[in-house]
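Render this sequence as a predicted structure.
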Amino acid sequence: MTNTCARTLTTTTALTCALMLPALAQAREVNITTTLKSYGGDGAYLAVYLTNDHNGYEGTLWLAGGKAKYYKHLSDWFGATYGDQAEIDGITGASVGQGRTLTVTVEIADAMIDAGYQIRVDAAVEDMRDSPAEIIVPLTAAAAGKPVSGTGYVDTFQFDM
């Protein structure tokens, strides 16, 4: 390879990286608020996670509930993660009581917003029915700030950017 060709390749590679890295590195804080209904049971376990435009699992944003033996009841999330405890390291909190609100702030890459991703929530309560796909909302600027109703234990869910 000649020096000119090598310099051109190096310059092209550097320029490509310079254009791509800011898009990959930039993220924004997203506030997620989930308010539960008064359903007459124990605290709910909630898995809040992202899927891509093919409904493939991308990552867990938050897991409410501390006992791993109950995670299998968050069936869509559990199936997607294969129960891998490494998926939730550092992003787990207490279960959420009925009528209570869970508010968490997470960072989501700007490149994922308005790009076909979805925020999903699975819910489960001990001795009651599990509620997979309780919430499915597109991760779009248009959906931000708009509360949606859940299909089981969740009264309202909303994310704000």
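Summary. The chain has one domain: 27-160. DSSP finds two helices and eight strands in the chain.
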